[in-house]
Amino acid sequence: MLRQQLTHPEILEAIASAGHGSRILITDGNYPASTMIGDNASLVYLNLAPGMPTVTDVLRVLLTAVPVEEAGVMAPADGPEPAIFDEFRSLLPELQLETYERFSFYEEASGPETCLQIVTGEQRIYANLLLTIGVVL
User: Fold this and answer.
1) Which helix (H) or strand (E) holds 11?
2) Is there a catalytic annotation at residue 8?
3) How far apart are alpha carbons 136 and 75 in whole angstroms?
4) Closest Cα to residue 23, out of 7, 6, 39?
5) At 59, is the secondary structure helix, strand, or coil?
6) Among 11, 44, 87, 129, which lies 20 to 30 A Cα-Cα from 37?
């Protein structure tokens, strides 16, 4: 039995076998997970019900298990910045969010560095977050 917050076996396996520079994608419920998965990524579906869990719920737990050195988001082509970006910043206060347009984000997120893709029940749009694992000091 584990004494830490992260207990999901598939997620633990994926991050335990990852290293510095590997990426983890946390997706909202609209993300095309099955068609945009990279060759090296494990796919974990956590989308239990609409809104459960949220991307930020998953992020909070992941941050107890891995250091994060970069974070990228899918930004809308026009209009205001999605409100969830402020939540990401509050949970990742030392990082600047890298922004990608939709198709660039898909390319980044499905690259060979992505080791894990976690699908959530998040209903807010543009709530996809691409994390780069940092170094454990």
Assistant:
1) helix 9-16
2) no
3) 29
4) 39
5) helix
6) 87
pTM exceeding the 0.85 threshold for the entire prediction? yes
Q: What is the pLDDT of residue 4?
A: 86
Instruction: Determine how many CB atoms are found less than 10 A away from the CB of residue 83.
Output: 10
Do 44 and 109 contact (CB within 8 A), yes or no? no
- pLDDT tens digits along 6-15: 999 999 999 9
Q: Which one from 19, 20, 81, 101 is the annotated catalytic residue?
A: 20
Which domains are assigned to the chain? Answer: 9-133 (3.40.1650.10)
pLDDT in tens, 33-81: 999 999 999 999 999 999 999 999 999 999 999 999 999 999 999 999 9
Q: What is the average pLDDT value for the chain, to the nearest integer?
A: 96
How many CB atoms are located within 10 Å of the residue 26 CB? 27
